Amino acid sequence: MSHSRVPTTPWRFFAWFVKPSILPLSISTLGFVGTSAIMVAEPYILSQVIDQGLLAGSWEDFRYWMLILLAVSLCYPPLFVISLRMSLIPEAALRRRGTQAIADHLNAIGTGSKGNVSSGEMVNLATDDSRLVAEAITDLAIGVMAIAMFAAGTVLVWNIHPLLGIVLAAGVLLTAVVTGPLLGKLQHKQASYRDAVGQLAGQATDVVGGLRILRGIGGDLQFTMRYRLQAMDLRALGFRVAGSVSWVQGLRQSIPFGFVAAITWLGAIMALNGTITVGQLAAVFGYASILVISTTNMLHVSERIVTARVGAGRLAAYFATGRDIPDTGEDNIPHGDLHDPESGLTVPTAQLTVLVSAESVPAAEVTKRLTRFSESDARWGASKLADVKLKHVRRHIRLLTHEDYLFAGTLRTTLLTEDRTDDERAHSALHVVCAEDIYTSMGSTLEGEVFEGGRNLSGGQRQRLCLARAIASEPTFLVAIEPTSAVDAHTESLIAERVAAKRAGTGTLIVTASPLWLAQADHVAWMREGKVYATGTHTELLTHAEYRALTSHEDQS
């Protein structure tokens, strides 16, 4: 699925989102229309039971219409259950589609998301916004059912008496007139609330990443106070949203019941005057009750759509975010080593290289240049990396950092981003990173659920799963920054040994000062002030006192 095909306007995004599930949703819509026909038919059949059977004293007609009523009533439950299931089944698929599209687009735009989409916003896009849009789409079938019930009920009541039909239609019209402006205000407040949630979540995520620095300079208490004040403002905004929701829901329930009373009272007077029959009065009451159900459902779906429209707007804005690196270059895959002229670092094609540096920022900049997340003169074999199509760079050169995110999905979809039938590759990747505990904790199946952000995993498990995902993609070059910083020394030693064996013959760059990785390295580059200062094996570089102090400090920690 190409991210470029994702529309960047809210309503077109709705249409794109629903397209793969159009068949089950169409079936559920037809089923719900069928259930609405049954609901509308029952008051009419009941009126015939009363008029032609009971009041006319005809046992034959009474039995005939009662059998029809029984048959129709028996058809309703299974048809409704099947329709409801068909409408709910696509919801999970729709949410996975949204999550996958978000991940694909993020991979495509790379650092283009920086400054445009905060980490907190990314979390909300993948969780709340995708969920709200999926739920609104699955509710559309119920909305169609409500409209069909209203239309059929109004026509049948009109046939009983035009005045009753006018009153019935006026009830729905008045409900729409009263609640319409409230839905507009609700959308505006929902949009403001969603903006505030994204901003606050983004601040929290950014601060967690720099918590150690904040504590070091005494800024954690200041942030806590400011965060508390902003959270209180968000809570107040949430109360205002809830106020609008309560008005919509209150009117949704009260106005239709008022019209049930009005139309029943009017029908009773007509029955007393002989204008309509007693059976028709019962039918009018039944149709008025259907009005309550249809109006309530229509307003419920409208409320869902309003809320989802806000989420779709945020998603559409995200998909409108472009990459900051132009997708130019030749459509061919180069061969050879990776080389960064700015730092002097070379990553051989068939070796495990470890980059050691006391400065994290210059080391991170090198990895971005080598993976084309920033433009540079970096080279891949005889070709300049900037002259290679991004799709080839992203497929063959994989960057793994602490910012890598786990989207909601199964263990299979998390590990196998391309061929999702290659179970052997998934199991192999889990073994390489010593992640069998993750597999067993999820029921020993690749269909085990990974929560959004890996919330059902520990920090070490999340890190190992991200590394397993990178290993499973089998890139030509794997570039990883401190991929085992959250695991114990014994596990780290096993992972380093297994990664070295698994990726023998391919290029791997690990940025770390851990002696456990250095022990497995074919080639070590020691960088100072953003430049490669010395290269060799770990044993050879230990002759430098500064290097020895840097790596032995890592060993002590």
UniProtKB/TrEMBL annotation:
InterPro entries: ABC1_TM_dom (IPR011527), ABC1_TM_sf (IPR036640), ABC_transporter-like_ATP-bd (IPR003439), ABC_transporter-like_CS (IPR017871), P-loop_NTPase (IPR027417), Type_1_exporter (IPR039421)
ABC transporter domain sequence ranges: 276-554
Signal peptide limits: none
Keyword Transcription: no
Subcellular location: Cell membrane
PROSITE patterns: ABC_TM1F, ABC_TRANSPORTER_1, ABC_TRANSPORTER_2
Tree of life domain: Bacteria
CDD domains: ABC_6TM_exporters (cd07346)
GO cellular component, one term: plasma membrane
SUPFAM superfamilies: ABC transporter transmembrane region, P-loop containing nucleoside triphosphate hydrolases
Chain ranges of the ABC transmembrane type-1 domain: 27-307
Keywords from the named record: ATP-binding, Membrane, Nucleotide-binding, Transmembrane, Transmembrane helix
Transmembrane segments: 21-45, 65-88, 140-158, 164-184, 254-272
Gene3D superfamilies: ABC transporter type 1, transmembrane domain, P-loop containing nucleotide triphosphate hydrolases
Record-level Gene Ontology MF annotations: ABC-type oligopeptide transporter activity; ATP binding; ATP hydrolysis activity
Main location (coarse class): membrane
Membrane topology: Multi-pass membrane protein
Keyword Aminoacyl-tRNA synthetase: no
Name recorded for this polypeptide: ABC transporter ATP-binding protein
